[in-house]
Amino acid sequence: MKLASLKAGGRDGTLIVVDRALRSWVAVPEIAATLQQAIDDWSNCAPRLNAVSEALNAGGRGDARSLDFAALAAPFPRAFEFVDGSAYLPHVERVRRARGAEVPESFYTDPLMYQATAAGFLGPRDPVYAASEDQGIDFEAEVVVVTDDVPMGVDADEAAGHIQLIGLVNDVSLRNLIPDELAKGFGFLQSKPRSALSPVLVTPDEAGDAWRDSVLRLPLRSWLNGERFGEPDAGVDMQFNFARLIAHAARTRPLAAGTLVGSGTVANQDESVGASCLAERRMLEIIAEGRPRTPFMSFGDSLRIEMLDERGASIFGAIEQVVRRYAVLP
Amino acid sequence: MKLASLKAGGRDGTLIVVDRALRSWVAVPEIAATLQQAIDDWSNCAPRLNAVSEALNAGGRGDARSLDFAALAAPFPRAFEFVDGSAYLPHVERVRRARGAEVPESFYTDPLMYQATAAGFLGPRDPVYAASEDQGIDFEAEVVVVTDDVPMGVDADEAAGHIQLIGLVNDVSLRNLIPDELAKGFGFLQSKPRSALSPVLVTPDEAGDAWRDSVLRLPLRSWLNGERFGEPDAGVDMQFNFARLIAHAARTRPLAAGTLVGSGTVANQDESVGASCLAERRMLEIIAEGRPRTPFMSFGDSLRIEMLDERGASIFGAIEQVVRRYAVLP
Question: Per the CB < 8 Å rule, is A118 touching B118?
Answer without folding.
Answer: yes
